[in-house]
Amino acid sequence: MIYVDLSGARVFLIAVALCSLAGCAAERRNADAVLQAREMEWASMRESSYKAVDTMIEQMGAGLKLGTLIRVEPLKNTRKMRGVENRPFGSVLSEQIAARFTQKGFPVSDADLTRPPYLLVRGNYTVGDNSVFVNLKMVAPHLNKVVTGHDYAIIMDGDVATLVDPDPQSPRFFSAGWSE
């Protein structure tokens, strides 16, 4: 009878199996990290919009009565003046701002309003290399007066880049990021 010592082979096979499982676990952790990062990207954009509204409400204090009618205009790209059209980014941001005002108890209208008193929220955004800079102001049209404002920046992640410039053939859009 020939005896073959397989103990070394068994140890080797067990080691290979464990390494394979570790690779699967690492791959799963990477997938979880990517998913979490994408959720944080959207949370960051939405939370930035919500914090901007919260700040403007706080700045207004007693001057802003609950139930005051508000109209939110789509934010405009400052480069439109130089021939760059508005992008989905301004519309998405405006919708988030309108949603936050509604959550805080303020009625929001999409229609042009003619009856005072109402407040108009408008703003602009400018695209930088790593961020989008947003300027909001709340205007009392019947008084022809800016009553409050807020400036903030949103980090340029993949989704924000697509909303700012949805055309992958754009000279500013590259798979590795943005470039001037």
Describe the structure.
The strands form two sheets. Strands 1, 2, 3, 4, 5 and 6 form a six-stranded mixed beta sheet that branches. A two-stranded antiparallel sheet has the order 7-8. It contains three helices and eight strands; from the N terminus they run αββαββββαββ. 18% of the residues are buried. The chain has one domain: 3-Layer(aba) Sandwich (Rossmann fold), CATH 3.40.50.10610. α1 packs across α2. The protein has 180 residues and is α/β, with parallel strands linked by helices. The protein is globular. The chain has helices at residues 7-60, 88-103, 158-164; strands at residues 69-72, 76-77, 108-109, 118-127, 131-140, 145-155, 173-174, 177-178. Helices cover 43% and strands 24% of the residues.
Percent strand equals 15-25%
Rg:
26 Å
Largest sheet at a glance?
6 strands, mixed
CATH-assigned fold name = Rossmann fold
**What's the pLDDT, averaged over the residues?**
76
By secondary-structure content and strand pairing, the structural class works out as alpha/beta
Number of self-contained structural domains: 1
Q: What are the segments in which pLDDT stays under 50 over at least 5 consecutive residues? A: 33-42, 171-180
Q: Give me the count of strands.
A: 8
* Straight-line distance between termini: 76 Å
What is the share of helical residues?
40-55%
- Quaternary structure: single chain
Instruction: Please write the CATH class name.
Output: Alpha Beta
CATH A-level architecture = 3-Layer(aba) Sandwich
> What is the element string, with H for helices and E for strands?
HEEHEEEEHEE
CATH homologous superfamily caption: ABC-type transport auxiliary lipoprotein component
DSSP helix count? 3
Shape estimate: globular
